[in-house]
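EI: anyone free to look at a 319-residue chain?
SC: sure, send it
EI:
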Amino acid sequence: MNLEAIELSIVIPVWNEARHIHQTVKTIVEFVKQSSTSFEIIVVDDGSTDETWIELMAVRSEIPDVEGIRLSRNFGKERALCAGLEHARGKAVIIMDGDLQHPPELIPQMVEYWRSNKTKIVECVKKTRAKESFSYSMSTKLFYGLLQKLTRFDLHGASDYKLLDRKVVEAWANMPERITFFRGMTAWLGFSRIRIEFDVAERIEGKTKWKPTTLVRLALQAVVTFTSLPLRLVTIIGMLFLVGAVILGIQTLYMKLTGIAVTGFTTVIILLLSMNSMIMLGIGILGEYIAAIYDEVKGRPRYIINQKTQNLYTNEGRY
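SC: here you go
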């Protein structure tokens, strides 16, 4: 296929999806064909430990427009997205999950918005979510609320299900950081955008791979990547404690000079506990930023490719 003729790229990161990857890809292709006759499906195997790659090659033998990238280990969804985006050649690129929770029937509508030159980004926003535990739902709301306060980007209901114009993809490719947060990066880029609401469907098979520890790590990564406000908060809190210490010092000196006995043992203990807690919190926040700096300074590649199909190429130096 002529590389310049590719109009639409679909990027699908997967991990241990052998049982349903065949059905997933075939379903997505059906809707893509309604939108374009010039397309490619790029499936990124993020170091699966099952037979995902074998199944993917079987799908490719049936559908030549399917291309595969196999990473050397599990680098995480964010890095797998990077691999897919850096290999995508279409004039527009759609990113979606491999469990059909992102409804492929929206693809024709997304492409139509893009073709009509109405927007550079079409982002699908969750109207309702699939069945989730109460703790998971509350944690998600807390995370996006905190992120909005710290970064001023409203990502409530945001998903990785997006269409990006080639101009947006190239702008994204010029962001060299190793620690990535795709939803935040696309919000930071700007460009005109249209939002489409969708109801999150149940997974086609199995259970979600997301764990509480994964979500906490993603939350820390998002905050550290997009704002330095927590560092400033530590400074502000330190100044408030300094003011409080000065006031208490003046009070103590006054009571000593006037001969009033000081019996504030409880006050001293509370102050010590609160100040030590704030010190440890401040050290923890500094540690997160230093760890991020450490990862960036090492300059290691975002991912390592173990195997890929022959028709895939990438711009040198992108990873």
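EI: The chain has two domains: 6-225, 229-298.
SC: 👍
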